[in-house]
Amino acid sequence: MKRQLIAAVGVAAMVVGLAACGSDAKSGGDAKEAAPTALTVWLTVDAQQNWPDLVKSADDAITAKYPGIKINHEYYGWKDKNTKLDSVLATDAVPDVVEMGNTEMLPYMIKGALAPLDASKFENSGAWLDGLKASATYNGKTYGVPYYAGARVATWRKDIAADAGVTAVPTTYADLTAALDKIQAKQGDKFSAWYQPSRDWYTAMSFVTDAGGSIAKQDGDKWKATLSSPESVKGLTAWKDALGKYMKGDLTKDDADRYIVYGLGSSNMIYGSGWEGGSAADPKFDKTGGKLKENIVSFVMPGPSGKNLSTFLGGSDLAVPVKSKAKTAASEWINAFTNSKAQEVLIKAGNLPNNKTQLAPLKADPKTAPTATAAEISWFVPTAPGWLQVEKANVLQNALQDIAQGKKTVEAAAKDADTAIDGLINKA
Question: Residue 6 domain-assigned?
């Protein structure tokens, strides 16, 4: 599931009084914390529907240590959870454990709504996936525990490729572009050899990262936009070239309905979350007469640098609100819910684990190799005080659309984006 950084109108209000609530308490380190009598855990409906036995297993671990403790569970859809969380964080009726989308963590960490945790208390913390670890870290402190991950992969149709004389899945960027050239020539100008929405900034920034660039870098206690650096421009130029050659669709689109568009059958390849290809092949969206289910194949997206394209990881973290009265038990519940044994349950349910150690064996299984391999090299957004404001202003999306439509050169769009980012990124 794709998750955007939330607007969180209530974020400012929710932290009223937080400073007086022991924001420096670490998991397992609060000597004044009384033995808990109750624990409230908020998870999304994914856990309720797909791995309820794992929830029970974590509960059992806590009840064994704290006899008589009552564990309450509440399950939410993503939007409902955020609305409810914002409304309670300024009160004393906070959950002790809350599931957060990895892109949702930043504003809560910045505002002091989450308790810092001792990463060493959690199994596999030394091997957490880079993209998830970054999502739970702010100013050198850990505020969440990675739960599970999802990576982006390339998905294409082997029947269309074969019709153009391409029989092997590309393993290098040169192979990929050569194959796409053949497919584009065979199918004509009304067909997208690679359907890549211009406003999908996750993909564009993967090209930037692949070239050694970045959105912004921290310099002391300030952040400075770097999209106009030579490395970033190189990545953006490679991204623009690919769109110009292979994207024949609407150049004002974002990626929200990419899988639906792919299901229409007017494109050969997409690059997106691992679930998108399967969703496009669902009979509800497949308008090709069932050809997608029979012919789509996913693979690790190669990058122009010669390495695999660095991916933006989706996923979830588990956090402890700073107002929790049971921080130690909450962190212990999280450890029981995310340890190696728990990760095996999540893997069997189709997720990627939160750590590189358990990710390694998945690379040997053809079914999981593409997403597992892609997840090894990942990036995350700048963990800057004003990043939420940058996202809300659609700075990246607008710059990318201008580039794709030829309204601005890469250099001009990058320079203008840097100016806009610099005006927002250091303001909480």
Answer: no
